[in-house]
User: What shape does this take?
Amino acid sequence: MSDLLWGKAGGILGARRNKGLEAPLYRTRLSVRHLFTPVRVVRQSKFRHVFGQAVKNDQCYDDIRVSRVTWDSSFCAVNPRFVAIIIEASGGGAFLVLPLHKTGRIDKSYPTVCGHTGPVLDIDWCPHNDQVIASGSEDCTVMVWQIPENGLTLSLTEPVVILEGHSKRVGIVAWHPTARNVLLSAGCDNAIIIWNVGTGEALINLDDMHSDMIYNVSWNRNGSLICTASKDKKVRVIDPRKQEIVAEKEKAHEGARPMRAIFLADGNVFTTGFSRMSERQLALWNPKNMQEPIALHEMDTSNGVLLPFYDPDTSIIYLCGKGDSSIRYFEITDESPYVHYLNTFSSKEPQRGMGYMPKRGLDVNKCEIARFFKLHERKCEPIIMTVPRKSDLFQDDLYPDTAGPEAALEAEEWFEGKNADPILISLKHGYIPGKNRDLKVVKKNILDSKPTANKKCDLISVPKKTTDTASVQNEAKLDEILKEIKSIKDTICNQDERISKLEQQMAKIAA
Assistant: This one.
């Protein structure tokens, strides 16, 4: 066979020489050898051609003083109504809440959410109410806020509820994916607390499971388990209601820099971290057998922490490194090597943080499968990920039914042991946000304690009039203290605005 081919090759050469053409032998040999080279089969995927594009300047949010606090959270949270950004603030901690359409230059006097007395470290929108947001701060508290339907017109200093239970700064807040009013917080006291926001009570306290700082916490699809990554280089899968560790992996990544761990829709755990040689790694684990990873890939030697954002509908993971100027994205499948590289979106400016829009906030008419809100030093820039399609029809393979805003369980049902998957909605006709009900907090631990205290007093046969007088005096004192706190907070906000105006004047004079 090979002789025959070389004979044909010789014939080709002879023909070319007869025509007076030079035909180097190695070129002909190369073309013949190509007959024996196996064809490389490209893996079929509808997401192979996903591309990212930053929006035009007039659709960005400009002149925002993004927080400079040294903490590896995303500093940004997004939902179909608002974008929230942690900002620099004097005399406490604050974050901006902007309606999505409020693009362009943001005035320095724009109202903020400024009730914390220390810098804000993490924020998270409630998945079941687009007007409710939780924040964790260096002041050791978690606060839950109700944002007016059309956004802020005045600075917000009074939260709906203050959750106090951590002894050190609170760096992580995460809402339960399917149960209403269930919020998780994790602090530098190495404790995880799960709250019933509807009553203001801490119902689960996991304070003896981590020996070192917790880097991140992630709920699974139905909220029955959590996984954590910690400074002791362990990845843990925990059942919070049974208060037991279900699975654990020591030295999931051997490097000393921070790790991240998130649950995937199929129950596997995806982690990012560093090797002993400080190379960035990503890995996939099965919680039922965490001896060896399903897949482990080394990426590069940059030292920015990789923040993973996961879309359970398309099984795509987007990795945004802090300080990087790119977003890499991968598809997770059941076929080896399980984590398939798709592409990289690159830009010039490094990112300080990143917000990720839930699926119901995307434009299905433009085949948009993800939208990021990239934080620069002084602005927030939306980046749109699109799958190119020729047809204008609804692409149901890109948009399977996705988690909607309706809670599948009440908080009490979840704490009693029930589980439920998210209630799914179709995006075929686009998502139209409905009216959100107000978050109402009935503080059992405070309000219920008053009548019981009175009952105890009756048993000891203390005259009723004395009890009533004492309670009236206490209430009056409490009102007085609350008024004083409010006036101090208002003064701080006013001073903050005044400082901003003076800074503006200085900038104009300097220019």
